[in-house]
Amino acid sequence: MQPLAMAVVLAEAGITLCLGLSLVRGARSDGFAQAGSLSAAGLLLVFAFSTAILIRSGTSVRCMCFGRRGVPLGMRHIIRDLALASVAGVGSADISGALSFDERLVLMEIAVAIGTIVMFLDDIFALLSPWPDRRADALER
Asked: Which of 81, 82, 41, 73 lies closest to 54, judged by CA?
């Protein structure tokens, strides 16, 4: 594995650990939720910036980050990363104090559902595409 890819994997694991600890511990003021959310927002901003640089340079890179099709990186990836970064940034705000375990669990379930949809967004776009050959290609993979 390349060093940059390893750094991304470790950063994602750290974010997951921080957010998981905040869920289990139940105290938003302990800093785990804020650290995880701000780290996630920062990583997503790096992804958006890197994608913009690749697009601007004319380099065509296929990304299977949000589906199995391996769609070339484009403007929708930048917009998606910026939108997710803003959601993560909002998640870092400690506006409600401590939430009950049930409230945290419901929020986590909603986040998993939205995350699953986002993960397969390129496949969903392919299925809803008005061009039949693209739908057939997406269904075959």
From this structure: 73
For residue 37, with 0-12 CB atoms within 10 Å meaning exposed, 13-18 middle and 19 or more buried, which class applies? buried
Q: What are phi and psi of 71, to 5 degrees?
A: -70, 140
Contact at 8 Å (CB) between 122 and 69? Answer: yes
Going by C-beta distance under 8 Å and a sequence separation of 6 or more, which residues neighbour residue 81? Answer: 44, 45, 47, 48, 51
Q: Which two tokens stand for residue 73?
A: 């990186």
Q: How far is CA 21 from CA 25, 31, 32, 109, 140, in A?
A: 6, 10, 7, 16, 40
Q: Write down the domain spans for the chain.
A: 3-140
CA 4/CA 6 separation, integer angstroms: 5
Q: What is the mean pLDDT of the chain?
A: 77
What are the CA-CA distances from residue 111 to residues 50, 108, 114, 139 (Å)?
25, 5, 5, 26
Lowest mean pLDDT among 52-61, 87-96, 109-118: 87-96
**DSSP 8-state symbol, 130:** S
